[in-house]
Design brief:
Layout lengths: L3 E4 L2 H6 L5 H9 L17 H18 L19 E3 L2 H15 L18 H6 L9 H4 L4 E3 L7 E4 L5 E6 H14 L5 H6 L11 H22 L3 E4 L1
Length: 235
C-alpha cells in the first residue's frame, strides 16, 4: 500500500479531483491507473455536495477548539483550490518517525534499517507515552491530518468523512521538522532539497529513507503553511 501526502482543500481531496504522483506519471504515459478513495459519509462524490459537509465539519470543529488555536479554522475550501502532493512511502515515513523518536531517546540504539514492525519500536513507544512530552509530537503521534493554524497539542476527533482521526497543526509540524533538522543533521535548505532525488531502494539505510521523507514533508509543509491549506496522509 502506497503512502502519499496531499495538501489542498478537503473538498477537492474527497471528490477525487487530484492526482498522486503515480497517477500523474500514468496519465502522462497513457497508462491506466485507478485509485479508489472514500468521500465524506461514504456516500458523496460530487464536489458541490461535499463542500457543505466539509464546511459544517470545520465549523463544528472550530467551535470545539475555540480558545485553543491561534486563529480561526478558515482556508480555501473550493473544489478548484490549488493542491500539492508527493509520495514519501510508508518506508520513508516510518524511517522519519523513528529518526525523530530516537533523537529524543539517545540512550536507545537507533536501528540501521527500518524494522518491519516499526510502529511498535521501543523509542516510538516512549515518545508516545502519556507522560512524555515529545519535541516532535506532531510527527510521531499517529497524526493523519494537519490543519493550517497553530496549536500545541494534537487531538483525536472525527474528520470530515466521519472517521476517528488524530489531528495536528501544519504550523507546529513545520517548526518541529526544523527542530529535528537542527538537532540532528543541521542541513542547509539546498541539502534538504537534494535529498528528494529518487526514492531509496529496498536495502537503503534508515537514515537515507528518513532524509528522503524529511525532504518530502518539509517541501509540502512549507506549501501548506504558505497557502494556508490542510495537509493529509493518503493511503
Amino acid at each position: 500500500m502506497a503512502l502519499d501526502v496531499y495538501v489542498g482543500s478537503l473538498t477537492r481531496y474527497y471528490s477525487g479531483d487530484w492526482e498522486n504522483v503515480a497517477e500523474k506519471v500514468a496519465r502522462e504515459r497513457g497508462v491506466q491507473y485507478r485509485m479508489t478513495r472514500t468521500p465524506p459519509k461514504d456516500t458523496l462524490r460530487d464536489a458541490a455536495r461535499i463542500r457543505p459537509v466539509v464546511l459544517a465539519w470545520r465549523r463544528k470543529l472550530g467551535e470545539a477548539l475555540s480558545g485553543k488555536v491561534d486563529a480561526a479554522l478558515d482556508w480555501d475550501e473550493s473544489a478548484d483550490a490549488s493542491y500539492f502532493t508527493d509520495r514519501p512511502g510508508w518506508d520513508g515515513f516510518g524511517s522519519l518517525v523513528l529518526w525523530a523518536a530516537y533523537s529524543e531517546h539517545p540512550a536507545l540504539r537507533r536501528p540501521q534499517s527500518l524494522p518491519e514492525a516499526w510502529d511498535d519500536d521501543a523509542a516510538l513507544v516512549r515518545s508516545n507515552a502519556a507522560n512524555f512530552k515529545s519535541r516532535y509530537g506532531h510527527l510521531v503521534r499517529n497524526i493523519e491530518l494537519w490543519l493550517p493554524c497553530g496549536f500545541a497539542v494534537s487531538f483525536e476527533a472525527e474528520d470530515a468523512a466521519g472517521r476517528k482521526t488524530v489531528i495536528g497543526s501544519v504550523m507546529t509540524l513545520r517548526r518541529q521538522l526544523a527542530d529535528l533538522n537542527d538537532a540532528t543533521w543541521q542541513a542547509s535548505g539546498g541539502d534538504v532539497a537534494s535529498w528528494r532525488g529518487a526514492p531509496p531502494g529496498e536495502d537503503a539505510a534508515l537514515e537515507a529513507r528518513a532524509k528522503f521523507a524529511f525532504s518530502v514533508f518539509t517541501s509540502l509543509v512549507e506549501q501548506a503553511a504558505a497557502a494556508k491549506l490542510p495537509m493529509k496522509l493518503d493511503y
